[in-house]
Amino acid sequence: xxxxxxxxxxxxxxxxxxxxxxxxxxxxxxxxxxxxxxxxxxxxxxxxxxxxxxxxxxxxxxxxxxxxxxxxxxxxxxxxxxxxxxxxxxxxxxxxxxxxxxxxxxxxxxxxxxxxxxxxxxxxxxxxxxxxxxxxxxxxxxxxxxxxxxxxxxxxxxxxxxxxxxxxxxxxxxxxxxxxxxxxxxxxxxxxxxxxxxxxxxxxxxxxxxxxxxxxxxxxxxxxxxxxxxxxxxxxxxxxxxxxxxxxxxxxxxxxxxxxxxxxxxxxxxxxxxxxxxxxxxxxxxxxxxxxxxxxxxxxxxxxxxxxxxxxxxxxxxxxxxxxxxxxxxxxxxxxxxxxxxxxxxxxxxxxxxxxxxxxxxxxxxxxxxxxxxxxxxxxxxxxxxxxxxxxxxxxxxxxxxxxxxxxxxxxxxxxxxxxxxxxxxxxxxxxxxxxxxxxxxxxxxxxxxxxxxxxxxxxxxxxxxxxxxxxxxxxxxxxxxxxxxxxxxxxxxxxxxxxxxxxxxxxxxxxxxxxxxxxxxxxxxxxxxxxxxxxxxxxxxxxxxxxxxxxxxxxxxxxxxxxxxxxxxxxxxxxxxxxxxxxxxxxxxxxxxxxxxxxxxxxxxxxxxxxxxxxxxxxxxxxxxxxxxxxxxxxxxxxxxxxxxxxxxxxxxxxxxxxxxxxxxxxxxxxxxxxxxxxxxxxxxxxxxxxxxxxxxxxxxxxxxxxxxxxxxxxxxxxxxxxxxxxxxxxxxxxxxxxxxxxxxxxxxxxxxxxxxxxxxxxxxxxxxxxxxxxxxxxxxxxxxxxxxxxxxxxxxxxxxxxxxxxxxxxxxxxxxxxxxxxxxxxxxxxxxxxxxxxxxxxxxxxxxxxxxxxxxxxxxxxxxxxxxxxxxxxxxxxxxxxxxxxxxxxxxxxxxxxxxxxxxxxxxxxxxxxxxxxxxxxxxxxxxxxxxxxxxxxxxxxxxxxxxxxxxxxxxxxxxxxxxxxxxxxxxxxxxxxxxxxxxxxxxxxxxxxxxxxxxxxxxxxxxxxxxxxxxxxxxxxxxxxx
Length: 1029
What we know:
Oligomer: single chain
Number of domains: 5
Radius of gyration: 32 Å
């Protein structure tokens, strides 16, 4: 009986009908800034969707997908049974507008695979090798998904219920198949090993699921052979267990694997301690990610005067730009606050680039500004953005200010090409410096302003005259990156480096005679000096992990850089770099490079070669001992035509000239989810539940159908909704019918049934990622039938409700709730009286919440909300209790007699120290303050059961609120003895704990209440579920 009451009350908290099928109260927005026109091409196994200007990258994706699949087919010994759809976006900005997944992807998300329809969604970010990697990575997920769980929504759901693949295997396999092993992966695992944060295999989560999982599989391939990876995956599928799969394929369990893998890592990396240096041994550490409890401090830019360094950091939780002293590293100021406004949605931290004006008065950086990237110029003294420049490009990165202060060079992306551009600030003229298919990145001006150094994958093809007419980038080795210099006037190119290593981050010496850059030639990214006169190059560092983002000051005595060390990125300042002469440092190759000097990968990579496309890659077998069916021996083989038609011949998808056929995208719905069950009862008839979710390939059109049949249609629940999402403004329409049952004790009324049915219209217009305007119009009919007292006439009423709201949300989330930022909403609701029916009210509410980060894991939260309702039948606000309260208590029972109390009232929570319905009125205010902190980081019991708990959060709170009718409010009563006491103001306080159990957050609060004079009551215990507010 108690659980039935709990369920009933939770139902009452959630049946505000105008919000039945639409939206969420808070949350960031998915904004469609562009009206895309989609087309698609097909290859043998894939359908590739692309938009305007994306034909070349779609063709690249098709070729790479087929080559990647051939490698996966060989490694995993699996043939696809269904086609895979690949959706390609021209840039990361376009990618963030996809509706395949409705949550807005962060800057660090380079692509994703949608499991139920097996769709791969990837952006082109200006670098062909990066694009190849993400296609192969996500395609590995898609192929593995079919292999392990089968094709189709129901097969996947059923398969996932029986087998949960560990994240390290899922992401590790995708990284291993798409990368093999490389110097970047080697860097992360070297640091993890030497810094002591490599976990057991079963605890590879977060970033370590990617790099740690990749390392585990690389170790298994090195020790047992690459074929064991496919065998392992096959055994895991068959046995439905990671442990049994390991045992049957390799002969060890996860504990044995952890022990052997850890020992391998120690033997691989521990010798480097004696041979190489920590970055602090040869440079001054200017930031400290461990002290600041952050991850990234990068992109240093030394001012021309040499006294300041501007840099990018996530020390606040958001990515911001800071200014510090180049003398002692003291923080001077925050110049730019990022990721909280529309013009600074993202600061491109993965491609950090800041440049100073020659007079040291301004800096320039690139950032996502709504629909496109823009260059932002900041007045350093005023700490204010004074100019913003947009160019209509698909992406803008790594600006460099010219020595004369007139031009800014940057890397720009347009229609599948990553090129170098120059922008004249005075004339607003944009000049394209390079214009070809190659990836040209990281431009840096020379001191005389005549040339620009940059990084490119063009190899020897730096002269337009020697580029073949039938050149295709996907047949080349675009993984190789070298440094080039281009004359801005003549466009003549000169190749500076020509190694099989990866070079990056070129920067001229202030005199212009030398060039500093980073290279992984030894297996670790170190700083090299290139003499432009003699052509000699030599290393000046021998670091343990890696160096990036160089900045060289005018007197040549200060060289700033970023280094990854001890699980974070920090900025260092190296003095007098040119004192190190050629031959002073002899770099020793890493173990990885020594073993794989030629390939530098540890695994073959999926290049496209004509001869490989038709090659049979499955292992050849000797069939002499096989027993064949008689029909097979006679050639009488029955072929399932449906299966036969899934994959295509080249004649089906290519024209006679070898080009791909292009087709216009057409909307075609397919199921995202179909679920149903049904039973027949001799007393209650047919009962059952059905859920159907349909959408098109792009997710722009969505249909949801829900039914819960009980006895007949009047007693059943059903709902239909359609959402139109391809434009900036989202629209929705829905219809619903719900039957609710309540028991009314008054006057022995007994059971009543409320039939609620109606229709909704909905719209949402986002202004940016953070702010939106919502509107909804609902027609609602309610029919109340008195089941136990049929002599009482049924109550049938009609209502019209209009809702408008403005919502802003910039918060960052922790494990139990928001931890930083702010969010607010302003809501207006109006319901007119319709003839003799309906209600007559207009309600205005506001809710503001601010989250302050106080060091690592500590937060202070302030919330203020309030509202008022007017009209002949104003809405009521109920104060008291908390959301998701399982052991709830009410003041004077559940209010279910009046329709208005159920359907047109709102619970304003939390107000702890009180019961539900503690205070009510048509006016209210509520103030909540909480200090949140880590209560138990890790706790493990030894007896009687070895049960462990971790990351249990604690909270100290106060809740102050009140509700009243009209002007009848007396907050404080001072009549008795002159000592004030709270009257219409409620004051509660207490302590609590929260723990994230994965599926949900569980909360325990203990609260007391006081009138601040002499009355106290409590404790009250609140056992509840759901995230913190």
